[in-house]
Amino acid sequence: MPHGGQILVDALKAQGATRVFCVPGESYLAALDGLFESGIGTVVAKQEGGAAMMAEAHGKLTGTPGIAMVTRGPGATNASSGVHVAFQDSTPMILFVGQVASDQRDREAFQEVDYRAMFAPLAKWVAEIDRVDRIPEYVSQAYHVALSGRPGPVVLALPEDVLSASADVPVVPAVNPPSGRAADSDIQAILDMLDKAERPLVLAGGPLWSEDARKALQSFAETAQLPVATTLRCQDYVDNRHPNYIGDLGIAPNPALADQVRNADLILCLGARLGEMTTSGYTLLTPPKPAQKLIHVHPDPSEPGRVYYPTLAVAAQAGQVVQQLAETAKPGPDCSAAIRTARAAYDAWQEPEETPGALHMEQVMAHLRDTLPEDAILTNGAGNYCGWPHRYYRFRRFRTQLGPTSGSMGYGLPAAIAAGLEHPDRKVICFAGDGCFQMTSQEFGTACEYGANIVVLVVNNGMYGTIRMHQQSKYPGRVSATRLKNPDFAALARSYGALGLTVTEDAQFPDTMAQALAANTPALIELQIDPRALSTKLVTQDL
To answer: Helices marked H in 424-478 — which ranges?
Structure first.
């Protein structure tokens, strides 16, 4: 009879798992044995946080749970950063954690942690499998929970003795989640409210979208004559060249778009939670009852009304609802002039504003916008450097943007590796600040080991730029704890056997980027920018 590790892997295969991201540990040796010759790709990261972020990015890219396996204690605590990203980003993910043997529980055995208590606020469901014959049941339930309603992470603890025990158990078939469609009456109610609105606005974001949903959103906007904006790091939910697209509501949004939200009389929110970043600190819409009428479509029925009172709440998947709307919509009131005005404001916002120094990120982004293929995938972590790709790049295809709405530093590099492995035929560009990159820089070695031929652009200004910006605002002239002593990033890349290059002025970038894209290896370009250029708009002399 197979041991628990083999049963676990067989259950994952039955659910369609193709890749596992892990850092090995003695607490789940039987599971590692089960992966041997299983046909499931095993990617060994350098640190558990990187493995969990890779799994989260895999979940975003595929719409199926990303799988991570880590050892107990320190392995689990390291991996919690990726679980938090998955929770706030509503990404399906399953984290398997090795656990002490059942007969050692509650003795504070070596690296013992109560994972139910630890992960309770970070995951949709946390459980510990205490019988080998129930492993397929738990895996099946984990997939159902991760994918149902508002998607999110599940954590399953695996005691050593359960994994090493043997049993003869049936395989549970792959999950069959609900369709997520809305009732016809809800669709008609949405259309009726839009038809009566004078200044409507569609806001798209959240989980459970697809390429078909993106196309349906554009078709619906054209037919019903609606302006469309996206939420933080969901800019790829609509082709940014589309005339009805008017920008994104993220950190420091276009002031003209912010005014458009304030002045709207009806907002159709498709899938987003309407959190702090999207609402500019809950000011664009005022809780608990916003001035605008609100149609809130969300897969979790407990979300509408949690912060904002909705005029109409629809518990359904936004990607399904927008396809239903596209099939049903009829031409609405003529709003073409208002849409053209809003679009013109977006186009004006995309015009580069010059920042100090010899290398300008606005020019870097203009070159990438004009030369990268439509299906290129851009990733980022967190920091002021993100403002340049968010403001100046135009996303044209679904799932070409991978960024953490949780604002987690270090995410861009693991996400790029997951994207490069899942789509080896596409260009994958990782943006990382010098501080952000060093949170997970060891994973560049993972990219080299597994042939993820990504291009990493390290935006080096010698500081934690976001914190310096706030520091300058609140405590001017008192720089504290925000300077960085950095390595030679290009030399670090070369030490892995990869391509490492440095750019210090605008004229160097096009040829350097072409060299990196053509290299049959991971590549890193260090972009040395002027530290006075704190953001796309803010210049500082407080160095």
So the answer is: 434-439, 444-450, 465-474
Burial of 260 (0-12, 13-18, 19+ CB in 10 A): buried
Domain 184-349 = CATH 3.40.50.1220: yes
pTM of the model: 0.96
Sorted by sequence, the CB contacts under 8 Å of residue 315 that are 6+ apart come out as 182, 298, 299, 300, 301, 304
Residue 505 to residue 509: CA distance in whole angstroms: 7
Average pLDDT score, the chain = 95
Structural element, H or E, at residue 247: strand 245-249
- Rounded to 10 degrees, the C-alpha dihedral 52/53/57/60 comes to 70
CB atoms within 10 A of CB 185: 9
The predicted pLDDT at position 188 comes to: 97
- The whole-angstrom separation of Cα 151 and Cα 81 is 17
Percentage of the residues of the chain whose pLDDT score is greater than 70: 99
pLDDT at 38 over 90: yes
| The two structure tokens encoding residue 215 | 């196309």
Q: Is the dihedral of CA 248, 250, 252, 257 positive or negative?
A: positive
Among the four given CATH numbers 3.30.70.1050, 2.130.10.10, 3.40.50.620, 3.40.50.970, the one describing domain 4-164: 3.40.50.970
Note whether 504 and 359 are within 8 A (CB): yes
pLDDT at 63: 96
For residues 2-24, one letter each, b for 16 or more C-beta atoms within 10 angstroms of the residue's C-beta and e for the rest, the string is bbbbbbbbbbbbbbebebbbbbb
CA-based nearest residue to 19, from 93, 123, 90, 89:
93
**pLDDT per residue as tens digits for the range 441-475:** 999 999 999 999 999 999 999 988 888 888 888 99
Amino acid identity of residue 119, one-letter, is F
pLDDT band at 106 (very low <50, low <70, confident <90, very high): confident
**3-state secondary structure string, 372-424?**
CCCCCEEEECCCHHHHHHHHHCCCCCCCCEECCCCCCCCCHHHHHHHHHHHCC
Residue 156, helix vs strand vs coil: strand
Rg over CA atoms, the chain: 24
| Burial of 382: CB neighbours in 10 Å, binned 0-12, 13-18, 19+ | buried
Measure the CA–CA gap between 523 and 447, rounded to whole angstroms.
Answer: 10
Per-residue tokens: 78? 């390291």
Would you place residue 535 in the very low, low, confident or very high pLDDT band (cuts 50, 70, 90)?
A: confident
Classify strands 200-204 and 428-433 as parallel, antiparallel or unpaired. unpaired
The alpha carbon of residue 107 and the mean position of all alpha carbons in its chain are separated, in whole angstroms, by 38
Q: Which CATH fold would you assign to the domain 361-528?
A: Rossmann fold (3.40.50)
Q: Per DSSP, what are the bridge partners of residue 296? A: 269, 313
Residue type, 432: A
Domain ranges of the chain: 4-164, 184-349, 361-528
